[in-house]
Amino acid sequence: MDTNRDWLRSELESIEEAGLTKRERVITGPQGASIHTENGDALNFCANNYLGLSSHPEILKSAHQALDSFGYGVSSVRFICGTQSIHKELERKVAEFLGFGDSILYSSCFDANGGLFEVLLGAEDAVISDELNHASIIDGVRLSKAQRYRYKHADMADLARCLEESAGARFRLVITDGVFSMHGDLAPLPEICDLCEKHQAILAVDDSHATGFIGKTGRGTHEHFDVMGRVDIITSTLGKALGGASGGFTAASRETVELLRQRSRPYLFSNSLPPPIVAAGIRVLDLIEAEPERVARSQSNTARFREAMTTAGFSITPGIHPIVPIMLGDERKTMALADAMNARGIFVVGFSYPVVPKGQARIRVQISAAHTDEQIDQAVTTFREAALELGIIG
Ligand SMILES: Cc1ncc(COP(=O)(O)O)c(C=O)c1O
To answer: Which region holds residue 367: left if phi is over 0, alpha if psi is between -120 and 50, else beta?
Structure first.
């Protein structure tokens, strides 16, 4: 016991010494563009609340109504006694929204990815993954017996190499994040689609950082790139733009989804999504379609922030995504600027090695449709003042 405790302590110390301890900042109220924290009020520029729906009154109302009419939880997995009419309704809506035959709900997108590859691929198959894919994809791939290939991030020549090398496999499945969360860059889907079609490979996209707000009507990266109908499988989350509570799903052909219902372990052996989350998810999709201005606002807010920060003299990875990495390079400067921003009431997070490569430290800002023009301008002004004071910009 003591030996184990000693080991635990030494592990924690080495995490601390390496500067990798993750500390939680405690919010004392609901998620939003402005938040209350233990250290005072702040403007929040580091949440996945892309559409500002996490605490939206219509979403809260739907969740409350579902509590009253469908209860708190179902105490069962889906196939035993845990399927309510609203679960079926949300699955239909997700499939329609994304343009697929069917969809299947999970407790999280982590589970959707965890329960995907093992079902669809055996030892005679191959899975081909972008090297920067999300941890849940990496874990999901580990659970399958398929041969594994990894291509350099967004490198189409390297993806082509993997497809050629895996030509002997029965099935090949290419998996990529639709949006890579550290950089806010989009996977080059048109080129990936071309390669998958040429090599008859299945294409799966994890669109967690896109569903609901990327693309003209918010359907995601496949809409943005005009390749709807060319992506075979989409996994995504209800835990970011789509209400922000929790829950995930896989959308695909009817046959794919039916096989997942029969064999996907996180679906078969884990409890159903609670009714308030399901009903709120339905309402979110209705709101996105009925009020397209929210998607437009997310996009115009992002453009406003990106332009103003560039004009202010910051180096920003170009792009269209509300994830805006402010590239500072130096680890200590990055942490000093993040601390200065937080001290001035703007909630942001600095990332440094080993989360990102050495010398590529950055502050990752996330813009929400809920931010007002004034809040965005205030964030930019604060960035400028703090950076000038620290000698980061001239
Ligand atoms: C690309 C990607 N996939 C999956 C997940 C996991 O989603 P969830 O929170 O629903 O498990 C995340 C969340 O960080 C993500 O960024």
So the answer is: beta
Q: Beta strand 185-186 with 179-180: parallel, antiparallel or unpaired?
A: antiparallel
d(CA 13, CA 9): 6
- The atom of ligand 1 lying closest to the CA of 110 is 11
Q: Where are the domains of the chain?
A: 21-50+292-389, 57-290
For residue range 140-155, list pLDDT tens digits in order.
999 999 999 999 999 9
Residue 166 has pLDDT above 80, yes or no: yes
Residue 146 · residue 121 · CB < 8 Å = yes
Task: Give distance in angstroms: CA of 137 to centre of ligand 1.
Answer: 9
- Torsion sign, CA atoms 115, 120, 124, 129: negative
Q: Which amino acids bring their CB within 6 angstroms of ligand 1?
A: 108-110, 134, 136, 177, 181, 206, 208-209, 237, 239, 248
- Cα(221) to centroid of ligand 1, in Å? 15
Question: pLDDT tens, 318-330?
Answer: 999 999 999 999 9
- List residues with catalytic annotation: 181, 209, 240
Say if domain 21-50+292-389 classifies as CATH 3.40.50.11810: no
